[in-house]
């Protein structure tokens, strides 16, 4: 009996179908040219091809009709996925079945889905759910083709959970985007509700064929009537910041909005995320690109005494040096209190008493936290935080990794003048899954290490790039001989902190016990000859109990 009520906060994470269960439904018939998801044939498509197809449809038939078409396609996919879950997996737990929807969405590569919460009551025909989509493919491709839109754009993806939930619950559930990366948001926020909870404005009912008499013919959002027919032109300088992921595009847009102003800019982000590079980019695109760019490593002045000469405001100091250009203060929250007080007083003065320059500051820690713990003066924080810009870490912009890897590879190959055949497929795959705690600096260092360690004329391999320093990611899922996707166990999984001899001893002992000490049968189970197994039994001093 399927539970008629449920709440994701009470979900048994081990209840089927888990993500591994769903991955087990994916099979590759390599020699037959087919990929199967359960009994449905699927194909692999590059996201840029999908984006180009979608953009061409918008150009040809307009945004309204493209949206409707994409949503109908998404509805069909959601129905197919619900059928897969209903027929392939146990239906004793409706909460687990509904939870499989976000897992399938993630597994198919549309987005990384985080479930904030969902709850339902089948008897009352009630549903409420909220989800976060990170790195939405549809949103990213719309940004690539048309730039920022004034309405949500993940149309096909949005219809999938609508159909999936409707098919499982037996009553209409409609999902809508509250925030969308296509509108410039950091991630998509998706909310699903039963029809009554949405009120009278539910045009999706007619679009999805759920009713012949819609309550009111209106739209939950108003797409623009006209759109640019060509992607917005990008200047050569803007291309200096490599990347087209939604996270980096958002940072680029904010940079474009502040370049013409002289107010202080605060760059926030993890160490190595590229804050100084953004500061130089601001300087180059600003009104005085030929002026000086003065970069100051503020931790060097963390412990300087108040009696020492102020290196910032003294005659010939950093402020004077940056006149007519940009003064960049990296890790400014580490400055001692004396220098902070002088800088705050300087910024408080009228513009006529200050040098004509742009001040850009950066921090890898939260300035508000620094104010709370007394490390940063609140007045200096408020003077400098007029225009904050968040620089995303590398793990949040994985779509940019191929271009960044190639850029660093070209740079270091030219620098070291070494002939190489490039990266091997294995090391490239592993780089795409690595989290890069050191961000861009770490990626550059790893690529340079590979260039130096690799044999001249050969390829850069995993051993050249990943050293004892990095916590390398696990081997990715592979295709087995039976066509199933599997993830090989890591050495840590196999050994579980045991020595190789201990692992061998356990394997041989288990094989002997399972075959009632039939040496020949045990050897076959272990893939050994009888002579080799006899040798190991004597070496390990094993005796039948």
Global geometry: globular
Mean pLDDT across the residues is: 85
Strand content: 5-15%
Going by CATH, the homologous superfamily of the largest domain would be: Trafficking protein particle complex subunit 3
Find the structural class using helix and strand composition.
Answer: alpha/beta
**Uncertain residue segments:** 212-239
Annotated CATH topology of the largest domain:
Muramoyl-pentapeptide Carboxypeptidase, domain 2
Structure description:
- The chain contains 22 helices and 15 strands.
- The chain is an alpha/beta fold and 545 residues long.
- The chain folds into four domains: 5-207, Trafficking protein particle complex subunit 3 (Muramoyl-pentapeptide Carboxypeptidase, domain 2, 2-Layer Sandwich), CATH 3.30.1380; 239-391, P-loop containing nucleotide triphosphate hydrolases (Rossmann fold, 3-Layer(aba) Sandwich), CATH 3.40.50.300; 395-465, Helicase, Ruva Protein, domain 3; 489-539, Arc Repressor Mutant, subunit A (Orthogonal Bundle), CATH 1.10.10.
- Strand 11 (326-330), helix 12 (337-348) and strand 12 form a beta-alpha-beta unit.
- Helix 21 (519-526) packs across helix 22 (530-539).
List keywords for this structure.
545 residues; alpha/beta; Muramoyl-pentapeptide Carboxypeptidase, domain 2; Rossmann fold; Helicase, Ruva Protein, domain 3; 4 domains; 5-stranded parallel β-sheet; 22 helices; 15 strands; 42% helix; globular
């Amino acid at each position: 009996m399927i539970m008629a009520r449920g709440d994701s906060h009470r979900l048994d994470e081990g209840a089927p179908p888990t993500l591994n269960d769903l991955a087990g439904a994916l099979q590759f018939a390599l020699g037959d040219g087919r990929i199967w998801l359960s009994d449905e044939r699927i194909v692999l498509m590059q996201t840029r091809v999908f984006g180009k197809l979608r953009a061409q449809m918008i150009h040809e038939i307009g945004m309204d009709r493209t949206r409707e078409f994409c949503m109908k396609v998404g509805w069909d996919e959601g129905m197919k996925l619900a059928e897969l879950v209903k027929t392939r997996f146990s239906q004793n737990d409706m909460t687990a079945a509904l939870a499989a929807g976000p897992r399938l969405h993630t597994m198919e590569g549309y987005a990384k889905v985080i479930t904030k919460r969902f709850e339902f009551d089948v008897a009352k025909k009630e549903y409420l759910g909220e989800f976060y989509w990170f790195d939405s493919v549809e949103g990213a491709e719309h940004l690539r083709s048309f730039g920022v839109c004034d309405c949500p754009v993940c149309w096909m993806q949005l219809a999938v959970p609508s159909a999936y939930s409707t098919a499982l619950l037996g009553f209409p559930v409609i999902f809508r985007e509250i925030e969308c990366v296509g509108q410039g948001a950091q991630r998509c926020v998706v909310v699903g509700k039963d029809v009554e909870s949405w009120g009278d404005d539910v045009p999706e009912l007619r679009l999805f064929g759920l009713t012949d008499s819609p309550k009111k013919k209106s739209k939950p959002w108003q797409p623009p009537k006209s759109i640019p027919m060509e992607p917005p032109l990008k200047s050569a300088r803007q291309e200096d910041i490599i990347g087209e992921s939604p996270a980096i595009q958002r940072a680029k847009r904010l940079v474009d909005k502040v370049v013409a102003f002289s107010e202080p800019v605060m760059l926030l982000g993890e160490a190595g995320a590229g804050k100084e590079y953004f500061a130089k980019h601001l300087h180059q695109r600003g009104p005085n690109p030929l002026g000086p760019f003065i970069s100051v490593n503020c931790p060097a002045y963390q412990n300087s005494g108040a009696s020492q000469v102020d290196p910032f405001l003294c005659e010939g100091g950093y402020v004077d040096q940056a006149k007519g250009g940009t003064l960049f203060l990296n890790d400014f929250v580490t400055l001692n209190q004396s220098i902070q007080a002088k800088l705050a007083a300087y910024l408080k003065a009228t513009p006529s008493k200050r040098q004509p320059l742009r001040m850009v500051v950066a921090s890898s820690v939260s300035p508000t936290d620094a104010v709370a713990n007394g490390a940063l003066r609140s007045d200096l924080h408020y003077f400098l935080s007029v225009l904050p810009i968040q620089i995303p870490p590398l793990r949040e912009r994985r779509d940019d990794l191929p271009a960044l890897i190639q850029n660093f590879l070209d740079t270091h190959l030219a620098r070291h003048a070494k002939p190489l055949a490039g990266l091997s497929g294995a090391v490239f795959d592993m780089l795409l899954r690595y989290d890069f705690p050191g961000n861009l600096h770490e990626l550059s260092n790893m690529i340079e290490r590979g260039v130096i360690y690799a044999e001249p004329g050969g390829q850069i391999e995993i051993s050249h790039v990943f050293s004892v320093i990095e916590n390398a990611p696990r081997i990715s899922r592979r295709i087995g001989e039976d066509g199933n996707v599997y993830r090989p166990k890591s050495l840590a999984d196999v050994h579980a902190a045991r020595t190789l001899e201990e692992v061998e001893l356990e394997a041989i002992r288990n094989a002997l016990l399972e075959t009632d000490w039939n040496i020949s049968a045990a050897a076959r189970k272990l893939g050994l000859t009888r002579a080799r197994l006899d040798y190991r039994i004597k070496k390990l001093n094993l005796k039948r109990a």
